[in-house]
Specification:
two-stranded antiparallel ribbon; TIM Barrel
Length: 305
Amino acid sequence: MKKIRLGRSGFESSRLAYGCMRIAGDGSGEARDRGKRALRAAIDAGYTLFDHADIYASGECEALFGELLAESPGLRDQLVVLTKSGIRFAGDPDPTSPGRYDFSKDYLRTCVEGSLKRLNVEQIDVLLLHRPDYLADFHAVVELFDELADSGKVAHFGVSNFSPSQVSLLQSLTSRPLIVNQVEINLHNTSAFSDGTLDQCIERRMTPQAWCPIAVLAYPAWGNTFSADDEARIRAEVDRQAGIYGVDDWLVALAWLLRHPAGISPIVGSTTPGRIVAAVRALDIDYSREDWYRLLEARNAAPVP
């Protein structure tokens, strides 16, 4: 597994992150055992960054990971534990409450305390604000960052699904470097290439993490707008490239992201050990500039302007 430096931190992590959103499954004993097997497969394959959020299975994914750490003394020091906070579901705290984003200090503080307990760690390595809260008081957020860092509960901070202007606003208020911006990047959603997100990551030495990196090929894209013709055209080009490189089609999608100079870190979310291990092969694909643009052309149904 190739390694990267996480933003402007001292942390080194695996180039591929392992996404823990599905590890608890339906909560049954069988599903939880399957989730632990997936986690162990990821660890054995060299993944060291494990991506969580307090809302994944309402905290059960963090708790399952915490169980694994309790079962394997010494494992914690080998891993980078990342989690996200700031989303509240409808019905919290009362039945009439809407689903919303909440960066209020008290709420985020409570989220962090809950994540620490469930993850069975004394410190969260990286805490991300999950989705931008339109009503956020970022001065108060920065005060909380200082509190959490000074108390040793969080080592580093970052954001998820933030626009470049939102990143700039938050970074302008704190001397602590934001080390990650986790956004959707895949063959369907390519906005990060052109809206300044990846440019800013290069400029500020932030690590961009890509969620749903193999959408379109392995599963439907979030908010899919592709027609059947679009998907067939993309599939044909991906299949052509998969044949050239001698890999499965979804590995081409990972290689496409890995080729970008921003140093995108795709988040692999499969719970199938074979696929978790196979994803590492994407790091060894000598993916050409020409094929990168061929796939972009297939995706857009047009050559670049």
